[in-house]
Fold this protein.
Amino acid sequence: MSIYPSTIPSTTDYPDRQDDIDWVTAERYNELKNEILAICKELGVLPKGSYSDVRARLDSLESGLGKAFEKVAEVEVSSDCDYVDFTGLDGNSAWFYVLFATIKNPTASGSAYHLYVNGDTTDTNYYCQYITGNGTNVTPARVNEPIIGYVPAGNRVYDIVNISKDPDGYFRYYVNTNRYSSSSIQVQIQAGVKTATIDNITSLRVQANVSNAIGAGSKFILFKARRG
Amino acid sequence: MKIKGLRVDVRTGKAEEVFEEISDEEYRKRQEEARRAEEERKMRELIERKKQEILKKQAIEELLKEGKITKEEISKCG
């Protein structure tokens, strides 16, 4: 059992030893070996990746995507459910959120998926304009609900949702959707807005309008655009 | 009626299963709303498909009339 990574070992844990004075027992060797193995396990295999060393890789992450976006939540649905809530958000600090979602509809009915903000689950408080590309057909529509996707029974959708509150306080989102399967593949773009202004984005909810239509295996990752 | 959800607190990173109690009336209302939305969606798609069919047919007729394409060329294109 190693001390690291839960705490950093001290000289009390491993006191200094002197030649010709102290005995170094096998037990002490094993303790040090366990600490080295714990460090290796913590870092993983080839932690420098394609960079010259780990420091170079960390610097690159900080100056690149890692600086631009910070992951704030990640969830995989383990059993079918109706909604996924993200709480503890601070949109005034983050400015923009990006939600990656891949959802399976395991039910026997088609389900729409809605994006609600700050616990307001009244559909008519939102509008959504969307365009669907289905083969050579392009269907535009405007609906009085905050749709981020619609999936027929047993099908799947992949969404990238950009979310923000505009300078005048209106909650807005924009979705790129890839849905259906095989030769039925469809593309959708969806833009949504809330009819009333909000002070902040403190929570987001993705909710199916059919019971248990967020199937096990559905995945969500939420990023914020500003650190801190 | 209880509906099941997952709540993820981004401050702690904890995800927990939660249940929200809604009245039977509210549940029925949501089901009815979902059914209505589904019907509207199907209707919009049907109308759009028919619109495209009519437009395509009209476009072909016009091009034939103008002599810009022939029936043989159309059959080759499918």
About this structure: The mean pLDDT of chain A is 92. The two ends of chain A are 35 Å apart (CA to CA). Residues 26-43 of chain A form the longest helix (18 residues). Residues 73 and 222 of chain A are 5 Å apart (CA to CA).
